[in-house]
Write a structure and sequence with these properties.
This protein has helices spanning about 20-30, 35-40, 90-105; strands spanning about 45, 55-65, 65-70, 75-85, 115-130, 135-150. By secondary structure, it is of the alpha+beta class. The protein has one domain (about 40-150): Phage tail protein-like (STM4215-like). Strands 1, 2, 3, 4, 5 and 6 form a 6-stranded mixed beta sheet that branches.
């Protein structure tokens, strides 16, 4: 029988997390940029913006999140589509460049996880018309965030 003492927490592993803290950290980081906040009259929205929101605005959406389980940790590789919508093409592209620069190699404060990587892996672009018949430009990209959650 073993003798001596050991810490109780040595037997307790950290609870597994979800992608929610990653999403929270990403959005918080975007909202902390004064330049981005000033450029987005219509704000930042998950998935889609409410009707009649002012242009330009930003939407974000989780598009993939595989989990790599390891013996002593698990890694999350999350992809977020971040899109800028504007009724002016140049404005949309300028704000998209700002988002790219804000997030490139960002160190996100993810609860219970360590940020390993934050970078853009794809560009997005589309044009459409809104309900009022105005041309709308969407530009953005898929941003990948890798985190590590030790057990």
């Amino acid at each position: 029988m073993p003798s001596g003492s050991f810490a109780f927490d040595a037997l307790v592993k950290s609870p597994n997390s979800t992608t929610a803290p990653i999403k929270r950290a990403l959005v918080s980081f975007l909202r902390s940029s004064a330049a981005l906040k000033a450029a987005l009259g219509g704000g930042i929205h998950e998935g889609f913006a409410p009707e009649k929101v002012d242009y330009p605005f930003l939407t974000y959406q989780l598009v993939y999140a595989p989990i790599r389980r390891q013996f002593d940790a698990q890694q999350y590789i999350t992809g977020f589509d971040i899109r800028i919508f504007s009724d002016e093409s140049v404005e949309a592209n300028n704000i998209d460049t700002l988002v790219l620069n804000v997030l490139d190699d960002a160190s996100l404060d993810v609860d219970g996880q360590h940020t390993l990587l934050c970078h853009r892996v794809a560009d997005l672009s589309a044009q459409d018309t809104d309900d009022e018949g105005r041309k709308i430009y969407m530009v953005g990209g898929t941003h990948e965030v890798w985190t590590d959650q030790p057990h």
